[in-house]
Specification:
Elements (H helix, E strand, L loop, with lengths): L4 E5 L7 E7 L2 H10 L10 H15 L31 E3 L6 E3 L2
Antiparallel strand pairs: 1-2, 3-4
């Protein structure tokens, strides 16, 4: 469908838009395959990526009847220890004295 587009946001120390509203076509498939060949680097911080996704969706909401957010990661977030979201709540909380963390208070 011509109105179906894809935006790809990187998840690293900061978040950046790698693809912005690209049509869902063969060129996009080839571009995504080339991204899959890149070596991993740096951290995978969730909060900047989620903030960037929210900003991107808000800016484009009037142009879309439907939106789908896929959040892909290869593991635990790098920003899970002692990082507060913009609401001042620590994203991951320690459980007792263990080194195990859980989301929320």
């Amino acid at each position: 469908a011509p109105d179906v587009v894809v935006t790809l946001i990187s998840m690293s120390d900061t978040a950046s838009v790698l693809l912005d509203k690209r049509p869902l076509d063969r060129d996009l498939v080839n571009t995504l395959k080339s991204f899959g060949k890149r070596p991993p680097h740096s951290h995978g911080n969730y909060l900047p990526a989620l903030d960037k996704a929210l900003d991107t969706m808000i800016k484009d909401a009037a142009n879309r009847a439907n939106m789908l957010l896929l959040f892909l990661s290869d593991g635990a977030p790098s920003d899970h220890n002692f990082v507060e979201c913009k609401h001042g709540v620590q994203v991951w909380q320690p459980i007792a004295k263990d080194e195990i963390y859980t989301s929320g208070p």
